[in-house]
Amino acid sequence: MRQLLNSLNLHTVCQEARCPNISECFQAGVATFLILGAVCTRQCQFCAIEKGVPQPPDPQEPLSVADAVRQLTLRHVVVTSVTRDDLPDGGSSHFSSVIQAIHAHDAQVAVEVLVPDFQGDELALQRVLDARPQVFAHNVETVPRLYPVLRQGAQYERSLRVLAAAHCYRNDIPVKSGLMLGAGEQAEEVRQVIRDLRQAGCEFLSIGQYLAPSKRHAPVHEFIAPEQFAQLREYALAQGFRYVESGPYVRSSYLASHYLAEQHA
User: Fold this and answer.
1) CATH number for the domain whose boundaries are 2-264
2) Domain residue extents for the chain
3) What is the DSSP letter of 120?
């Protein structure tokens, strides 16, 4: 996996964000592609991805991702990116090109995109959705009270608007979001976020444990018991979510193909 990714000059969020599931996924030949470089323009305090001034997008990247999908014979592909507030369209045209390149190789490959908020630009959202991904995801990550601490540059209400706009524009494409626990949130705050996400049109949800990537990042306030994750899963399903993964090591792209498989079962 590493040799192939390096040979194509590709990044994965698995490596850059130090995902705890990397061994399991790489052994299974699964990776979440990180496009638009590996340097983010925002300063989120929970994320291990490098912050700073990124390079211009690589015009060969869409074809490289499609080539990796072909060589790995993937049937479900997750494509995410760093936040590129420096680009006029937030990188949405690049997302569109990657989706189209994968589908040009094999129209049967399911493509899931996990996008930044594009600063609320609905034209950018529409550009991505017009490329027809099979799943559209954008993570709220935490409860609104903690945004000033954990998600500088992001806005909870703007993220909800992104999800709602995606659902309204193409309601045939499932909308997904993700939430991490243990960063200092309260139980009722979590339940309110779940209700907010469902009201915005989300059908899929991932809930996992926050793990600080280093001592420089925001500290872990609490390790959530597996029973609490199970209870939140049942709560979310009762609110109308169609599929929920909830557990300590769950991440947005972990077991991503299960969401659609369950939907079509």
Assistant:
1) 3.20.20.70
2) 2-264
3) G
